[in-house]
Write a structure and sequence with these properties.
Layout: E1 6-8, H1 13-24, E2 27-33, E3 55-62, E4 65-70, E5 84-88, H2 92-103, E6 107-113, E7 118-125, E8 131-137
Parallel strand pairs: 1-4, 5-8
Antiparallel strand pairs: 2-3, 3-4, 6-7, 7-8
């Protein structure tokens, strides 16, 4: 079984893709626009048709994870409530680099620092409102 996050950026997917490519090394595996679909089949469930230049579906490879995204209805008011993406870094230096890049233009909710369960842990919302935790877990005691 596989669970993959699917985020709707409500018209800002192209900007988000560029940001995640630069900030955390995301690679685009798939990118389809609403206009790429067959005529009459690229609309939404309610019968509306989003702008043809907006992203219908994209898949980003970030490390071992695939993150899927879309512009959805492209109404410009994306909300990411009740979900946080957790990014595990291999070491504290990489955690700092990733945290700082994701935080650019966003809001830090907990500064990156050591904690009782991690050599580095911090939380932020990026410029799109997506909530992230960046962590370097401590080795588990046997």
């Amino acid at each position: 079984m596989l669970i993959q996050p699917y985020l709707f950026f409500d018209g800002r997917s192209e900007e988000a893709i560029a940001f995640y490519k630069e900030a955390i090394g995301a690679q685009v595996l798939v990118q389809m626009r609403f206009g790429d679909g067959p005529p009459g089949e690229s609309g939404c469930g309610d019968g509306s048709a989003p702008p043809p230049d907006k992203i219908m579906h994209a898949c980003l490879q970030i490390g071992d994870t695939q993150l899927m995204l879309s512009d959805g209805f492209s109404l410009g008011n994306a909300e990411f409530k009740g979900i946080t993406l957790s990014l595990t870094a291999p070491d504290d230096g990489e955690a700092r680099r990733l945290f700082d890049r994701l935080a650019a233009g966003g809001t830090i909710t907990q500064a990156l620092a050591p904690s009782f369960f991690a050599s580095s842990f911090g939380m932020l919302s990026d410029r799109f409102g997506v909530s992230w935790m960046v962590v370097v877990p401590l080795p588990m005691a046997a």
